[in-house]
Amino acid sequence: MNTATSLDQEKIVLEAKNLRRVVDGDKAIVNDISLAVHKGETLAIVGPSGSGKSSFLRLLNRLDEPTSGTVLLDGVDYTTMSPRVLRRKVGMVMQSAYLFPGTVTDNITFGPRSRGEQVSETRVKELLEHVQLAGYEKRDINGLSGGEAHRVSLARTLINDPHVLLLDEPTSALDEDARASVEQLINTIMHSQDLTNIIITHDMAQAARLADRVAVIKSGKIERIGTVKEVLHDTIA
């Protein structure tokens, strides 16, 4: 994990500025959230069910559009980018691994192929080794376990070389063994690639294991943000 001092010296990669999303006329599910995440930092977002955690995350790569406010990616307002370009730079791994029919390779290379780009067999092989699925190139997705499917989903995001990785409850749908294995893999990738990460989790202990800082969201607002020790000490003690 990074120290507070080193984070202060790193550049801000992603900054949310007064993000707000209103639905059903007047219900603010995300209400004036501002925060900054530094290069190589992992920020965990926690809070009760229905607090706006996932809604906030979806605003960060414009899966949903904010009612007001914006996001800066490397200092650039993300409304100046096409959503397609933005989502390559701000990749998301969902709670459930939504894979397409076909092979593991078909799924991993889907993004580049949709842009007319060729992906070498070597690149696919290297990426599968990186997510601990060596030799799975030709496997049909219907034969994958839950943990394996999540690894493919992660590889499919990483092939786009994102600047920021968003993870929405990435292990909550898995059994205990798969959860531990995928969490360990995520932790390794986060640090080996110096990615900037935002992870939503209901598991306070997981937040403590993975994150440098933690933000608590309640009723669409940030209630508290700080280091793991500052925010979660009493919760996980």
Automatic annotation (TrEMBL):
Gene3D superfamilies linked to this entry: P-loop containing nucleotide triphosphate hydrolases (3.40.50.300)
Sequence ranges assigned to domain ABC transporter in this UniProt record: 14-236
Domain of life of the organism encoding this protein: Bacteria
The keyword 4Fe-4S belongs to this UniProt entry's keyword annotation: no
Keyword annotations from UniProtKB, A to Z: ATP-binding, Nucleotide-binding
Transmembrane intervals: none
GO terms classed as biological process: phosphate ion transmembrane transport
Keyword Coiled coil among record annotations: no
Molecular function in Gene Ontology: ATP binding; ATP hydrolysis activity; phosphate transmembrane transporter activity
Signal peptide: none
GO CC aspect terms: membrane
InterPro entries in alphabetical order: AAA+_ATPase, ABC_transporter-like_ATP-bd, P-loop_NTPase, PstB-like
Pfam families linked to this entry: ABC_tran
Protein name, entry field: Choline transporter
Organism this protein belongs to: Dictyobacter alpinus
Protein's gene: proV
